[in-house]
Structure formats: structure tokens, C-alpha cells
Amino acid sequence: MTLNAELRAFFEARQKQIPARVREIMKRAGDELAESGQAVRALGVGARAPRFRLPSATGRTVALDDLLAHGPVVLVFYRGTWCPYCNIALRAMQRHHDEIIALGARLVAVSPQIPDESLSLKEKHELDFEVLSDVGSDTAKQYGLAFDLSHELAAVYDTLGFDLQRVNGGHPRTLPIPATYVIDRQGTIRWAFADADYTRRAEPEDVLRALADLRRTGTEDTADAFSCIDN
């Protein structure tokens, strides 16, 4: 089963558990974000990847430049531990982590949640890759991914017990559009996926193909390998 087939199955099962009024609010917010076109305007193939220095779940600072010194980077933006779709997607990336390393790349995931929450996620799902905290979403903003939840949807998340005020370090309404990037050693984005629909994510197999293409062609070729940016 592909990752997105797994996510779709989860979505359909979960819809039966959510009250109709809440489903309507979630759908309305999702439609508005899609219609805004922000996912399309986010950084894409050929753009220079904004540099970052972010705290990891284990307390050290991780810089993009340091990661790139060892090879390409697979950069995943996710919403947080509270998001079941994110957890499914990160577990899928973990299953392909050895293949990513074998292709000479490093995998790193970024969310707006505080390091303690990232550590909980890393331990719970036994993630071998770095999980970084972008509290305030400054890095997500540089990639064009950060957006603010509507007050209506933020209130729904509060009633569901997500407590984004705490887990996001005082920035409860700002989240990233889920996205995945393959960045070459020169810091250029070579493959990109961003979708305003948080129930859809980059397929790990597509990431692996992008890395294999990058290794085969080298970074001197034009950045036209693969791209999937939706709204």
C-alpha cells in the first residue's frame, strides 16, 4: 500500500468519528487554504533553500549547511505530534530511512512544536532521523509554507485537546503546509512536494527516485528531476 492510500484509508475511517459540524469547519478551512494558492507559491524546484539553525529533539543545534556538507538533504515539514497524518507520514519515511542514507542523503523533519514534543514523537515512533523545532515557524515562513489557522478551526483544535498554545511554544495558530524537499549539496531545491491538503503527503518512493536521479545526473545538471506542488 502506498503512503497516500494508507492516509486515505485513515481519513475515511476517521470521518465517521468526527461530528458533522467539526467536519464542515475543517473542510471549509482546507478549501480556503487551497484556494489561496499558497502551496503553489511555496518555494519549488530551482530555488535556493533558505538556511536554518534549529534545535533538535535531543537538545543540539542542527544547521542546514552542516547537513549539506555530508550530501543532499531530504527536508520534511510536518504539523506536529498531535497530527495523526503527520505521524503516519513520518513512520513511512522511517521505513525508507536506510535507503535514503544509502543514496548519500540525510533526512530531517521540522515542525513548529517545542523540543520536548519532538522528543516524544521521536521516541514513540523510533525515528532515527533528526526532528527539529521551528517554534514561531520562522523557517517555514522562509519556505513560503507558514499560515495561520482560522479562529474557528483553532477553537476546534482546542476542543479536541491538541493544546497548540503549549506544544507550539505560544504560537497556537501558525502551522506549516506539509511539504517535502530534496536539496542538493549546493543548497538548491531539486525536488519539491507541497499540498494544502494535510491528508496528502510526498510518497517516499518519489523521494527515493529524486535522490537516485540526483546521484545519477549530478548537481551540475538543471534542476528538473521531479516536482509535485499542488494547491
TrEMBL record:
Entries under SUPFAM superfamilies matching the protein: Thioredoxin-like
A biological-process GO annotation: cell redox homeostasis
Superkingdom of this protein's organism: Bacteria
Signal peptide bounds: none
E.C. numbers: 1.11.1.24
UniProt cross-references to Gene3D superfamilies, sorted A to Z: Glutaredoxin
Pfam families reported in the protein's UniProt record: AhpC-TSA
Keywords of the record: Antioxidant, Disulfide bond, Oxidoreductase, Peroxidase, Redox-active center
Domain Thioredoxin, first and last residues per copy: 43-216
GO cellular component: cytoplasm
Catalytic activity: a hydroperoxide + [thioredoxin]-dithiol = an alcohol + [thioredoxin]-disulfide + H2O
GO molecular function, one term: thioredoxin peroxidase activity
CDD domains noted in UniProt: PRX_like2 (cd02970)
Similarity comment: Belongs to the peroxiredoxin family. BCP/PrxQ subfamily.
Purpose: Thiol-specific peroxidase that catalyzes the reduction of hydrogen peroxide and organic hydroperoxides to water and alcohols, respectively. Plays a role in cell protection against oxidative stress by detoxifying peroxides and as sensor of hydrogen peroxide-mediated signaling events.
UniProt-recorded name of the protein: thioredoxin-dependent peroxiredoxin
Protein's organism: Microbispora hainanensis
Lineage, uppermost ranks: Bacteria, Bacillati, Actinomycetota, Actinomycetes, Streptosporangiales
